[in-house]
Amino acid sequence: MSVLRIGHINLRVLDMDEAVNHYEKVLGMDVTHRDDEGNVYLKGWDEWDKYSVILSQAEKAGMNHIAYKVNADTDLDAYKQSIQDYGIEVEELPAGSLPAVGRMLKFNLPSGHEMRLYAEKEFVGTAVGSVNPDPWPDGLHGCGVHWLDHALLMCELNPETGVNKVAESTNFMIDVLGFYLVEQVMVGPDGDIQAATWLSCSNTPHDIAFVGGPVMGLHHCAFFLDSWDDVLKAADVMSKNRVKIDVTPQRHGITRGYTIYFFDPSGNRNETFGGLGYLAQPDRPVTTWTEDELGTGIFYHTRELVESFTTVYT
Amino acid sequence: MSVLRIGHINLRVLDMDEAVNHYEKVLGMDVTHRDDEGNVYLKGWDEWDKYSVILSQAEKAGMNHIAYKVNADTDLDAYKQSIQDYGIEVEELPAGSLPAVGRMLKFNLPSGHEMRLYAEKEFVGTAVGSVNPDPWPDGLHGCGVHWLDHALLMCELNPETGVNKVAESTNFMIDVLGFYLVEQVMVGPDGDIQAATWLSCSNTPHDIAFVGGPVMGLHHCAFFLDSWDDVLKAADVMSKNRVKIDVTPQRHGITRGYTIYFFDPSGNRNETFGGLGYLAQPDRPVTTWTEDELGTGIFYHTRELVESFTTVYT
Amino acid sequence: MSVLRIGHINLRVLDMDEAVNHYEKVLGMDVTHRDDEGNVYLKGWDEWDKYSVILSQAEKAGMNHIAYKVNADTDLDAYKQSIQDYGIEVEELPAGSLPAVGRMLKFNLPSGHEMRLYAEKEFVGTAVGSVNPDPWPDGLHGCGVHWLDHALLMCELNPETGVNKVAESTNFMIDVLGFYLVEQVMVGPDGDIQAATWLSCSNTPHDIAFVGGPVMGLHHCAFFLDSWDDVLKAADVMSKNRVKIDVTPQRHGITRGYTIYFFDPSGNRNETFGGLGYLAQPDRPVTTWTEDELGTGIFYHTRELVESFTTVYT
Amino acid sequence: MSVLRIGHINLRVLDMDEAVNHYEKVLGMDVTHRDDEGNVYLKGWDEWDKYSVILSQAEKAGMNHIAYKVNADTDLDAYKQSIQDYGIEVEELPAGSLPAVGRMLKFNLPSGHEMRLYAEKEFVGTAVGSVNPDPWPDGLHGCGVHWLDHALLMCELNPETGVNKVAESTNFMIDVLGFYLVEQVMVGPDGDIQAATWLSCSNTPHDIAFVGGPVMGLHHCAFFLDSWDDVLKAADVMSKNRVKIDVTPQRHGITRGYTIYFFDPSGNRNETFGGLGYLAQPDRPVTTWTEDELGTGIFYHTRELVESFTTVYT
């Protein structure tokens, strides 16, 4: 049994029209479905399943749930058992609970974030198709993001009380869901507090990541771009559309990726993440960042954290 | 049990000094070992195991064997059984048969190419290390290739006699070694002859590929570069070093990658392969190229095959 | 008095609809005028004068004339005198001879190509305007070429008869029009035959170039792109539109630029030329290419001329 | 008579060893001369005159003088006259006043900055030479800057007292030295205060620039890089060398260029400026930035000025 990748994220937004405009016009995704409750579903041009983002009207921004796709329907039974064995309650939602999605497992990570697993989502194909495809489609718009790539979840971390939901959630992802640790930040006087982790279920440097903070939340969800040049173009598109940029194009030390952090109109932090970085592998040694070089790990060029990184999230 | 990636390739070269100069100075690898028989072992800066290329003096260029690394030593027993069950003879070589490598399974693909599986190779670390690493090392030289990425093996294909070692080797990789099909070329009047395949055991578009031709051989082995800009720099480096370029920088339709085909001094075709292309996944639909668009698949810009593609290999 | 830059080129095309489609959809220019005789006028998004390409229906492809813009109307009088003093006949065409253009000087280069000089062309502005402009406009299409950059004119060169229209035209451009020599190819047993030249009236490596061949003609006209990444995108766009590419993305040794050579539907060779190359200056030493490295100069990666370079032109 | 380009800048540094290390190891220039007073002279690999940077030990950082190269020695006499006619005192320094430089005119801009003009500097050639040159040299190090590109001088501007040294210096450069205005920032209630200007004597968007502030000084001197990718590499090099970065890779709205602002060890602001931006021309309309979009003009992605831009300089 195995988890394939991040399947979708359900974001809460304050103004649906503005939100749809942002994910369509700025990020360059396409609306593929709207349901009766007013939720809007979008996908990137390079994704083949029906959607990877669900926007839900709400009073407060943030993430409702994050979902991962597993390899086969039978994996769901096995995961259900192993999650329960780990001591975490699991609810099984019938097919159709979400449009175009098969049955789902619903549970909370040790950090409290709601996660779902599913094996089936309606196949609609990429924008270039599967027979003699062009490398990119006509009609690319906005940043032209390829796909939802990963999310960074903010987890409660309090060295004084010993609460470390980063470490707890990391262990769960590894022990129960079969992810492996790719990079980590170790802090504290003895360097033994796991303050942030990047985990993979594939060969990308992160399919999910956790970072410690005062209270749980969504730090950001990231969308994939090919290259540093695409990141430049994305920043230009954001400027044209008056998007609030948090961190302009810069390299992450961690993952080696090219980043822009910015906010959707509701205040949810987005990232366009460019470049492969490297090919993660289970036998590649875990990369460790020490507390004194934490800033370098996050923002390789400035070598220091901006305050917003740890204080502004949803 | 699972195969992690291509582990190394053993190439035959006609002049060892020239060959070492090529893989060191042009490709930018580093010699990590020389054995008593005069074989030379090299690795890319971003690889953590001791070597990925073995150069062996010979009268005739080509490939002696290609090796893949599996996840765990116990996988070797399971693979040994399943390969034998498939009807292919397997020899087990003791640890140390190759320097710095544990026990190996040795067998021939249906196409006749010698393949080996191993689980252990001496860890030496990447050039940037695993604690607060820079994204690239000081002292990069030549093309600065990251790692050995994949190989394309030429397999006997004769529609008239019905011999199709492409399809046979593809089936073996899928059924026995757990690879999955990512792209394929289908030819013939009914479009039912599998003339070339690209297979993955990870999330890259190809960890191995097969293409049909008159007789078996090595079409090329490929080394990874990050970007289209790195491919330009690589072509410049080749020109400075008077390397014989077969195909200048161009996009592949298949895999979307950025390629240069060129030859080592012995005539073995090399590739620098740039860009992620896309994230391959088992549930991503197989991309199929039809015979009339085969040229476009191989060389997206010229849209036609060069004669050397199918006639020149080792 | 001084020449500012190439102003426009008048190309003969065999099928106007196909030609307009090519320059609009593939190159990404915009039609800004059509006259009563059916000529079509286009400009790039980053040009501020009304047009830089005139397409004229004809039975045979090629160039009718090439025009350069001078700094001031009074320069025309001075140039008229100096051209006549050089022994070349000049005709003065009244304003309006070409739509939106002031009076013009019309004459033939020593090579026989018709050249025109003018000081005034209707100002229409770039697509981004001049007040708080974005770096690039919304609605970019095709290759999104910035501007007409230069042309390479094929001139009669016959070492046996001593005819060298390359050298004659080069001298004229320098002595009369104030251009300066930037690069040259010297061939022949004594290396004293100027077989090709690149000349600047600005700080770009070439505002016009001449190359020797059997008979006079247009080798290519070139359109500017920013970068190697834009050249990749341009090649992708050409493939999507089934444009016949002559030379895929490659670096020129001469000028250091990034090139694609391709043909419009009538067979006129176009180039997308990317990168600044370097900043040409009158006191920068002339770069000389010797006959044995001519191929390297033209195509830095392959280091050899393709036959079409000297035999196919219009 | 005409000014060709910026010839060199004489910077005051607090620690010569640290400074040389910075300009050599980080920027990638080469020391070409040291004089008896301990001044150090450096050039970029793509420059052909002997030096473009002079480092002088001092108690306080900043710029001693900025020098421009004119086309011919006779131009110096003409400029001497026209500068004096403008009411500015000129001193003529004999050849050899600076090593390897011919006679110089020395005067102060209306802003107070010392400027020099010269026609002769010892030719040493670029690192790739002028016969069959490679596009870039072996042995590139650090950021590998091509050449000194421009400087931005801080000029006294006080709308309340009506002092505007930006406008005065701009007029001088245009009226006396033959530069032309490319871009400008207009502020004040009526938008009629010229608060910053970018001027060209060539076809680059700026050979010199002026910006208003409380007191005169050097805002930054800039070094040329080809591309956005080279800017990324430069930022990586800076991080490796612990260089203090002021503004990470970002696009300027003004000039469209790709920038990094950073400091040499003495606190002088440097810039690596990448990309051509566009081809400036005397007949290209002047680009005007209004006060409300000033931030966008300077930093296109963040759309707002950082405080250090106007307060930190030398």
Automatic annotation (TrEMBL), chains A, B, C, D:
Q: Which UniProt keywords apply?
A: Aromatic hydrocarbons catabolism, Dioxygenase, Metal-binding, Oxidoreductase, Repeat
Q: Does the keyword Oxidoreductase apply?
A: yes
Top-level taxon: Bacteria
EC no.?
Answer: 1.13.11.2
Residue ranges of domain VOC in the record:
5-120, 151-275
Q: Which GO terms describe its molecular function?
A: catechol 2,3-dioxygenase activity; ferrous iron binding
Q: Which SUPFAM superfamilies match?
A: Glyoxalase/Bleomycin resistance protein/Dihydroxybiphenyl dioxygenase (SSF54593)
Q: Which family does it belong to?
A: Belongs to the extradiol ring-cleavage dioxygenase family.
Q: How does it assemble?
A: Homotetramer.
Q: What is this protein called?
A: Catechol 2,3-dioxygenase
User: Which species expresses this protein natively?
Assistant: Thiolapillus brandeum
